[in-house]
Structure formats: structure tokens, C-alpha cells
Amino acid sequence: MKSLKRTNYTTKTVKSPIIGAFFYVLKNQPLPFLVTPSIKQEQTQEQMKIHRKVKIALFSILGTFLVLFVILVYHIATAKPKENATIQVSRIDFDKPFDSLSTIDIKEKLHSIAGVKSEIIVKRNVVVYFHDNRIADSKKVYNELMTKGNYKAQRFILPANMMNQPVCPVMKKDSWKYKFTKLVQNTFN
Amino acid sequence: MTKFSKIALCALVIGASVFTSCSKDNEDPAPATPSIYARLGGTTLVQDPDAAAGVMIEAGRLSYRKVVNTTVGLIVADVQSNAPGNLSAHFAPLLGEVGAGNTTNLAELVDNLTDFFSYNTGGTNAVNVYSGMSMAVAHNPAMNPRMGVKSTSANYDKFEGYVGAAAVQNGVAANTQLYADVVAVLESLRAPIVQQ
């Protein structure tokens, strides 16, 4: 209703009625002496209808945001945190296979390095271990392990041809879906 | 004589009903075999070996997590360039991400698999609730962008072999009923997972 109020230029802001009329024209408002009461009423009702629609639209948008916000809060509150969210798997390839004794030995040495998790897999000449990447990355673990024995080994780094293997061949890389997915993944990861 | 006959008849009926009620038919049935989850340790809380002191985990869940981690480790140990049949086509992209420092998907895979097996084998506490995709959807490249190619029956045989080896490494002997039951669970998932 506030916007329905017209500025009374003749009585409040402008002394001269002619200049006042000029301001009415300038503001695209009908001059008071030309507007009959019935026209005024119709205009008011029409404006009220528009305002009602605007109000409904605004409340709808606000309500939608509120519902989405509540859902988000509920989701965050009830989400089960991932166990070992910073877990990383790494592999070291040695020059010769392990027997039962050397398997125990290498496991003990790896376990003594901070950040290395409980599961260590020894298969032939390969050792795979899990570690917390906040505490130690694979290079740090490898360097520390090499100081604990006379080993000939190298850190396994995935060959480029395998690393570049497309995760999703069903999605074209130049499609908007692929680009959007990458954007979202890059934002949250 | 008639009086005695009636008394004898009543005694016979009462005796028959008493002895019938005590027969073996009404004994309690043999206790059902505990769930796989219960046999793997169940809901007993134990210290999580990969968490800070005082952080507890259900023993059944920990057993599954160990088997899942070992399975992933065995698969990673076999990843070789241009070596067919070692599941590298399915796991190399994940390894590539992990090597680049993005560990989210590895943690999610391990957590989801642990939830899935725990919940569906008797570990129905809230901690094990599985919220991932159905097996059919998760293994359909058209519905799950993470799935590079469809699994074959040979892929699944290989995967079952890895899980079996992982179970043995974590104390489930291959000649036990528990091992057979775990294999039966895996076999029940073959149909939705193998899609070519």
C-alpha cells in the first residue's frame, strides 16, 4: 500500500501549482484534479491485485529456499561421517619376492611409520599399504622405509596410459554434462 | 466293572495327554545359525585400530572393513599396464585419483562396501546403514559415471577370488561354513552386477 501513496507536490514539496503539475507529469502520475474517484478505485484494486501476486511470488521463493535450507541442515546433521576419509593406498615394488619372515619384517617396519594404517598387503614382490595422507604421503613413507633396511625398491606410480584411462567412456568430454560434473567434483573435492 | 472301566478310560486319556505334551515334538527348535555379521564379531565394541585411542567400532564391521581393504590392496598389487584380467580397467582410474591426492572416492568405496556387506548380513545398527546405489545401478555405466565398463562374469569370478583371499588373510579359513556363507552372499550379487 505504501507505493500507492502519491507525492503531493503542490502542498508539501513545491509551492507553485503549475510546477507541481509538471512534477506529476514527470513522475507519470495522473494529476489529482483529473482523476475521478471511480478511476482511482479501479487503479487501486488493480494495483492491489498486482501486489498480491508479487507477494505470493516472493513468499513462494522464500518458502522454497527455506525448505531447501532445512533439508540441507537435516542432511548435514544426519550425515554419517566417512570412516578414514583421508585414507590413501600406495604401493612399493621391490626387486625380489618376500618370504614369510621378510613379510613379517616389512610389515613391522611399515607399521612403525606414523600414518600407516593396519592393513598391509604383501604379494610376491609387491607391498600395498594404506595411510593417512594428512600425516604422511606415499613419498614420505617410501623414504622412511628405505632408511630402515637395505632395500632395492621403487614407488609404484600409475603409468600415464592407465591414469588417463577414461573413467566414463559413456560421457563425451566436450558435453555440458561432463563439464558440469567436473566443475562440481572440482569444487567439492 | 463299568465304574472301573470309566475310571480306567479317564486315566488313559489324562495319561495320554500328559505324555503327549511331554513328547519330543514340543521341544524348542534348535537355535538358528547366527548371522554372518554376528559370527564375524557382531556388535561387540572394540578399539578401531586405525583411529585414535578410545574410538570404538563394532567387531563385525571391523572384520568386513579389513576384508574390503585387503581386497582393494590385492587388486592394487596386481595392477599392471596392459595386463588383462586383473581388474585394472575398473580400479586404475581410482588409483590415479588417489595418487593425485584425491582420496574421496577410495574412502567412499571402502565405506560403502563395508556398509553394504555389514548391513545385509545382520549388522543392522545405524552405523552400518547403506545409503549407496543398488548393485544393479552402481555397476551400470549408463547410470553410474564411475563405472567405466560393464563387468563380465570372468571379472566377477576374479573379484570373488580376491575377496576369498582377503577373507583367508583375515582369519576366515576356506574350509569353514562361514567362508561358504560369505561366498553364497557374493554369488547372490552376481546377477545384478554382471551386466554383459
Number of strands of chain A: 4
Shape of chain A: rod-shaped
Helical fraction of chain A: 40-55%
In terms of structural class, how would the helical and strand content of chain B be classed? Answer: mainly alpha
Largest sheet of chain B: 2 strands, antiparallel
For the sheet with most strands of chain A, the description reads: 4 strands, antiparallel
* Number of extended strands of chain B: 2
Instruction: Measure the end-to-end span of chain A.
Output: 49 Å
Instruction: Report the radius of gyration of chain B as a whole number of Å.
Output: 26 Å
- Radius of gyration over C-alpha positions of chain A, nearest whole angstrom: 37 Å
**Spans of chain A of 5+ residues with little confidence (pLDDT < 50)?**
166-171
Helix-strand topology string of chain B: HHEEHHHHHHH
Question: Numbering strands along the chain, what is their spatial order in the largest sheet of chain B?
Answer: 1-2
Distance between the termini of chain B: 85 Å
Number of domains of chain A: 2
Low-pLDDT parts of chain B are: none
The chain-level structural class of chain A is alpha+beta
Short description:
Helix content of chain A is 50%, strand content 14%.
Describe this structure in words.
- The complex is a heterodimer of chains A (189) and B (196).
- In chain A, 50% of the residues lie in helices and 14% in strands.
- Chain A is α+β, with helices and mostly antiparallel strands.
- Chain A has a 4-stranded antiparallel β-sheet with strand order 2-3-1-4, covered by helices on one side.
- The model of chain A is unreliable at 166-171 (pLDDT under 50).
- With 196 residues, chain B is mostly helical.
- Chain B has 9 helices and 2 strands; from the N terminus they run ααββααααααα.
- Chain B has a two-stranded antiparallel sheet with strand order 1-2.
- In chain B, α3 crosses α5 (104-120), α3 packs across α7 and α7 (153-169) packs antiparallel against α8.
- Classes of the chains: A alpha+beta (189), B mainly alpha (196).
- The A-B interface holds A 80, 82-89, 91, 117-121, 123-124, 126, 128-130, 133, 137-138, 157-159, 161-171, 181, 189 and B 48-51, 57, 65-66, 69-70, 72-74, 76-79, 81, 88-89, 92-93, 95-96, 98-99, 101-104, 106-108, 110-111, 114, 126-127, 129, 131, 141-142, 145-146, 148-149, 169.
